[in-house]
Amino acid sequence: MGSVLQKKKRRSGRAKVKTNRPKKLLNPLGNDIIAKNWYADIHTHIHNTRRPFEPPALYSELPLSRNEKKPQANQKPFPPSRNKKETLTQNYRRLGLTARLKSATGGTEKTLAQLEQAKTASASAQRDPFAISTTEEAVFEEARVERDADGKIIKIHYASANKRPNPLNDPLNALEEDSDDGEEGAGAENEEEWGGIDDESRPEVIRLLEKEAALPEIKKPRHISQQEKEWLERLIAKHGDDYDAMVRDRKLNPMQQTRGDIARRVKRFTGKV
After folding, report:
1. How many whole angstroms separate alpha carbon 13 and alpha carbon 40?
2. Which of 84, 97, 167, 176 is the Cys-Cys partner for 92 at CB 3.0 to 4.6 Å?
3. Are residues 32 and 92 in the same domain?
4. Which residue segment(s) compose the domain that 148 sits in?
């Protein structure tokens, strides 16, 4: 019986484990436009409201409590573009963004277009006729064989060898080859004129980010506080324009401000800047 009571005492003395629920959603994405687009479906799921989601002006103002703020009248619903079944890199790539500015430190996921491009590049590359191919699918290609008088094979001419080598997969390589053959005029007629990037085809997130980046940066003027004004007035009343004496004054300069810092503050205060 005593052991049972001791167990109850120990259980009652233990602190209850509480999950640390943040008061607001974090913004690890670094931009309000991306964050509102990213967390649009999460916000709707948390509130479970019947009206469509209308994001606030700033991401930090996302209402997560019961006292929800009223949305502004000029705001439009932001369509969610986040796919939960995709990774962060895949979601960013679909929006036309990159999730990492630095180079990749590990393996990178290749898209289907990159795999097809690598397959065609390896097939068209010049290779040793006696090398064993490690590709999963056999590559069949026509070739012309040169033989000597005894019938032995001297040289093999592949069909891809006539083309200009393109190790960097330059898309303009075919155009340069046509110009070398004297067919530049015929190739120019078949090529369509590029009319630029269509704004309607780009995602809404890209257009909003470009619009935000095009805004001029407004430099906020620095305002002098009342306490700083009183401090500078005492320095000027005692030392005048002698900045070296202001630096050596232990009572009026207890934080050991440098000569250049005090001079800039005095010039800004007196309007000489």
Report:
1. 42
2. 97
3. yes
4. 112-162
Tell me, what's the pLDDT at 178? 56
Q: Which of 178, 143, 145 is nearest to 163 (CA)?
A: 178
Number of domains comprising the chain: 3
Tokens encoding 125: 């590359």
**pTM of the complete model:** 0.34
Instruction: Give me the DSSP letters along the chain.
Output: -HHHHHHHHHHHHSPPP-----SS---TTS-HHHHHHHSHHHHHHHH--SSPP---SSGGG---SSSPPPPPTT---------TTS-HHHHHHHTT--S-SSPPSS--PPPHHHHHHHHHHHHHS---TTSPP--SS-----EEEEE-TTS-EEEEEEGGGGSPP-TT--TTHHHHHHHHTT-HHHHHHHSPPP----TTTS-HHHHHHHHHHHSPPPPPPPPPPHHHHHHHHHHHHHHTT-HHHHHH-TTT-TT---HHHHHHHHHHHHT--
Task: Report whether pLDDT(229) > 90.
Answer: yes
Give a yes or no: residue 15 inside a domain. Answer: no
Query: DSSP per residue over 245-272, as a string?
Result: HHHH-TTT-TT---HHHHHHHHHHHHT-
Nearest to 36 by CA among 85, 73, 82, 97: 82
